[in-house]
Design a protein that fits this description.
With about 150 residues, this protein is mainly alpha-helical. Helix content is about 55%, strand content about 5%. The chain has one domain. The protein contains seven helices and two strands. It has a two-stranded antiparallel ribbon. Helix 1 crosses helix 4. The longest helix is centred in the N-terminal third of the chain and has 19 residues. It starts with 5 loop residues before the first helix and ends with a helix.
Length: about 150
């Protein structure tokens, strides 16, 4: 299966959130897309998104999504998007992911990522509020979440 784009996964999650009466902030969409990529890699041994997340102060971030949504800052994303056509396996997976993580706030998801090894290792012991653009290792991510699934 070809990897999905970060924008397609984000758009799918934005549509799913709206169907549930939820609004997503840039912080929350970043974390949801990170968890989607991490869990897909762990469960299916396939990348969902070909991009690599960076270990920013507020958790994992894809620059492409950051630039796309930066104008919203801490506000809900009001962009009108259409649900992308994704592979049935990916769509079903994203629905499950949203059911699991959609009820958390962006801040709660940020705190979860801060407790997990992929983000912590990429940060390399930097103080919590120091800027960082280190890449989060996908192999470490795959193994970390695969162990959590057991």
């Amino acid at each position: 299966m070809a990897a999905s784009t970060a924008n397609a996964v984000a758009d799918y999650l934005l549509c799913t959130a709206r169907e549930h009466g939820d609004l997503l902030t840039p912080l929350k969409i970043q974390k949801l897309v990170f968890y989607a990529d991490a869990w897909f890699l762990a469960l299916y041994d396939e990348e969902l998104i070909p991009e690599t997340f960076e270990a920013w102060v507020h958790g994992p971030v894809l620059r492409s999504l950051y630039y796309r949504f930066q104008g919203y800052r801490w506000n809900p994303i009001a962009q009108d998007v259409e649900r992308p056509e994704l592979d049935e396996k990916v769509s079903a997976f994203l629905e499950e992911l949203y059911a699991e993580y959609g009820g958390f706030s962006g801040y709660e998801l940020e705190q979860l990522t801060h407790q997990e090894e992929p983000w912590k290792q990429a940060r390399g012991g930097l103080p919590p509020h120091e800027s960082c653009s280190n890449l989060i290792d996908k192999q470490l991510t795959k193994h970390f979440y695969r162990q959590m699934a057991v």
